[in-house]
Write a structure and sequence with these properties.
155 residues, mainly beta, 5-stranded mixed beta sheet, binds zinc ion
Length: 155
């Protein structure tokens, strides 16, 4: 995911883009849907702050019942690009403050956008807040079936 500096007008720019998950190097078994980006870039002399809201749909396995479910996720990132003759010492992808050199055609925000999206995935993934999960005794999915434990005890 790159922003062509030349295509930005001076001052505020706002636009949206839809990209394929592979462009962010996402695992396509989880992320198969297009990724939506809302971008803002403020082109000033020597400085381009960029803000991105990224969202898509992921396919996850519920931590409680083990069923597959889909969920919309979304996150934000902001990077300030400063025009310099050299990169900042120790500068790495994902830093909030980054350099760009004069004549550099593009700002690469792949890493930032990918990170913002993946960090927005909840640590605990459940299909619904009231998912009843699997019975510890008989193992049925309690969302769709009745527990069989009592019947087994009767036999
Ligand atoms: Zn569940
Ligand atoms: Zn049971």
């Amino acid at each position: 995911m790159k922003i062509r500096i030349e295509s930005l007008k001076d001052g505020a720019n706002r636009w949206t883009e839809t990209i394929e998950p592979l462009e962010l190097d996402l695992d396509i078994s989880t992320y198969s849907q297009p990724v939506n980006l809302e971008l803002e870039a403020d082109k000033r002399s020597g400085k381009i702050p960029v803000s991105v809201h990224v969202s898509t749909q992921g396919k996850y396995i519920c931590d409680r019942c083990g069923e597959e479910f889909k969920r919309e996720i979304g996150g934000d990132c902001r990077i300030i690009f400063i025009q310099r003759d050299n990169t900042f010492p120790g500068e790495v992808e994902g830093d909030d403050l980054r350099s760009f050199l004069s004549g550099q055609p593009e700002l690469d925000i792949t890493f930032d956008v990918r990170d913002a999206l993946l960090l927005s995935v909840p640590l605990k993934l459940v299909c619904t807040d009231d998912c009843r999960g699997l019975c510890a005794g008989c193992g049925v999915n309690l969302n769709s079936e009745a527990c069989r434990c009592e019947k087994q005890a009767d036999l």
